[in-house]
Amino acid sequence: MVMRVGLFVPCYIDQFYPDVAMATVDILERLGVEVVYPESQTCCGQPMANTGCIDDTRPLAERFVDIFSEFDHIVSPSGSCVSMVRNHYEGL
User: Fold this and answer.
1) 3-class DSSP state for residue 51?
2) pLDDT in tens, 1-34
3) What is the pLDDT of residue 71?
4) CA separation for the pair 60, 15 (Å, rounded)
């Protein structure tokens, strides 16, 4: 059985380091993982949360959950964005 994962590419990786995103795909595919990139994804909301704009963060968190809820696993090449989702979404 092939593992299928949703790939979350954070906004700053997309804009400044797209090669990191492509390298992530390459590694996962070499390991036999089916990588799905939901094109409707947006920022995880971390920049807004870091500045205390929680009301602006909530819709982004809800969108993230809606988009990635179909996947058993989500992979992202950003420790801080992963931390945002894992450690702060529940409070939103």
Assistant:
1) coil
2) 889 999 999 999 999 999 999 999 999 999 999 9
3) 96
4) 18
Token pair, residue 7, equals: 């790939």
Phi, psi of 74 (to 5 degrees): -125, 135
CA distance 73 to 33: 11
Q: What is the pLDDT of residue 20?
A: 97
Give me 27's structure tokens. Answer: 């590694």
- 62 and 41 in contact (C-beta within 8 Å)? no
Side chain identity at residue 3, one-letter code: M
The encoded tokens of residue 74 equal 């989500």
CB half-sphere exposure, 56, CA atoms < 13 A: 10
Nearest CA to 50 out of 82, 88, 17 is that of: 88
